[in-house]
């Protein structure tokens, strides 16, 4: 590409859009993620190439591919943009009211009350901030955090940890057995296959399903009859209707209040296990913002989940609990 005699200024927006487009390999996908028009994204990318005097993308290929020079440029820009974001976060770390942009993600387990209450709280604490709230599975949210599509999120901590991200454990959420109300079988017998009820399972693509399957393998338990479901409410409805039994957690159980009269929650027989919900942030997220959200989330989790579950199931008090630094 010939170098323009009147080069356009290099802008931070153009660099950020280049980084996203390089990851998405599509102007359309970049426009969808940023909320800009296709023409605006294309304009910024063209301006960047004109400024540099090189072609960063092979525009003749679909999906879009970086040229060798584009690949070199992306490598340097990833480092530079990370430094800029970190510097910006540190500069505003002392005053959350001046935060101008925050992308927050949460697992669907929080959608009914915790995330809405948090959104209202943050809008009051950060009056100048433009918010983006997203909901998804833990795996989806972790991918978005790694790709810098989110700044902060609530997700289940995976067994392999979260490299290059910062995590603050929030909640210990133990696994429990849920049966239809009125069933008299012992949970150990149910898990041993001595019940006519089939095992209803979360879909295998979910992190929670992987954790349950791993524990069952460790115990040498096989579940031949399986119904898979990716939605917690549907799973609880199936159990409430007497269609089977399941393994879930108190937090998920608490989200299905409309079915509680037809369900009974039991301790997991034998060796217990739990998932940990954490507040996970990118390295450039301001510590003051992370601290504000962490503090409010603990209050919301206590009000909406811990206290009600402890009142109805006293045996959960030392199992279903907040995680502190001392823990």
Q: Briefly, what is this?
A:
With 327 residues, the chain is an alpha/beta fold. Helix content is 43%, strand content 20%. The strands form three sheets. Strands 4-3-5-12-6-13 form a six-stranded mixed β-sheet, with helices on both faces. A five-stranded mixed β-sheet has the order 9-8-10-7-11, sandwiched between helices.
Biggest sheet features: 6 strands, mixed
Q: Number of DSSP helices? A: 11
* Spans of at least 5 consecutive residues with low confidence: none
**Order of the strands making up the biggest sheet:** 4-3-5-12-6-13
Number of strands: 13
Task: Give the CATH class of the largest domain.
Answer: Alpha Beta
Q: Identify the overall geometry.
A: elongated
CATH architecture title of the largest domain: 3-Layer(aba) Sandwich
Q: What number of structural domains do the residues give?
A: 3
* Helicity, as a percent range: 40-55%
Protein name: Transcriptional regulator
InterPro entries: LysR_HTH_N, LysR_subst-bd, WH-like_DNA-bd_sf, WH_DNA-bd_sf
Keywords: DNA-binding, Transcription, Transcription regulation
GO molecular function: DNA-binding transcription factor activity; transcription cis-regulatory region binding
């Amino acid at each position: 590409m010939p170098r323009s005699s009147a080069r356009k200024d290099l802008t931070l927006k153009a660099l950020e859009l280049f980084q996203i487009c390089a990851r998405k390999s599509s102007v359309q996908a970049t426009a969808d993620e940023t909320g800009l028009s296709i023409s605006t994204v294309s304009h910024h990318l063209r301006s960047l190439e004109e400024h540099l005097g090189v072609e960063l993308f092979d525009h003749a290929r679909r999906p879009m591919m970086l040229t060798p020079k584009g690949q070199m440029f992306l490598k340097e820009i990833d480092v530079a943009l990370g430094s800029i974001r970190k510097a910006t976060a540190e500069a505003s770390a002392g005053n959350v009211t001046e935060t101008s942009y925050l992308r927050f993600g949460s697992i669907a387990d929080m959608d009914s009350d915790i995330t809405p209450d948090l959104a209202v709280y943050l809008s009051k604490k950060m009056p100048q901030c433009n918010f983006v709230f997203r909901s998804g599975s833990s795996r989806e949210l972790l991918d978005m955090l790694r790709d810098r599509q989110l700044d902060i999120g609530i997700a289940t901590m995976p067994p392999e940890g979260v490299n290059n991200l910062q995590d603050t454990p929030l909640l210990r959420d133990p696994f429990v057995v849920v049966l239809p109300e009125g069933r008299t079988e012992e949970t150990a017998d149910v898990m041993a296959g001595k019940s006519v009820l089939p095992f209803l399972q979360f879909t295998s693509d979910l992190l929670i399903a992987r954790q349950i399957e791993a524990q069952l393998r460790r115990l040498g338990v096989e579940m031949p009859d399986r119904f898979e479901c990716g939605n917690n409410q549907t799973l609880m409805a199936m159990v409430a209707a007497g269609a089977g039994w399941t393994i879930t957690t108190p937090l998920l159980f608490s989200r299905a209040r409309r079915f509680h009269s037809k369900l009974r929650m039991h301790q997991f027989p034998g060796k217990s296990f739990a998932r940990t919900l954490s507040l996970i942030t990118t390295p450039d997220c301001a510590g003051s913002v992370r601290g504000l959200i962490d503090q409010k989330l603990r209050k919301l989790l206590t009000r909406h989940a811990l206290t009600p579950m402890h009142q109805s199931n006293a045996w959960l008090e030392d199992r279903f609990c907040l995680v502190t630094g001392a823990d």
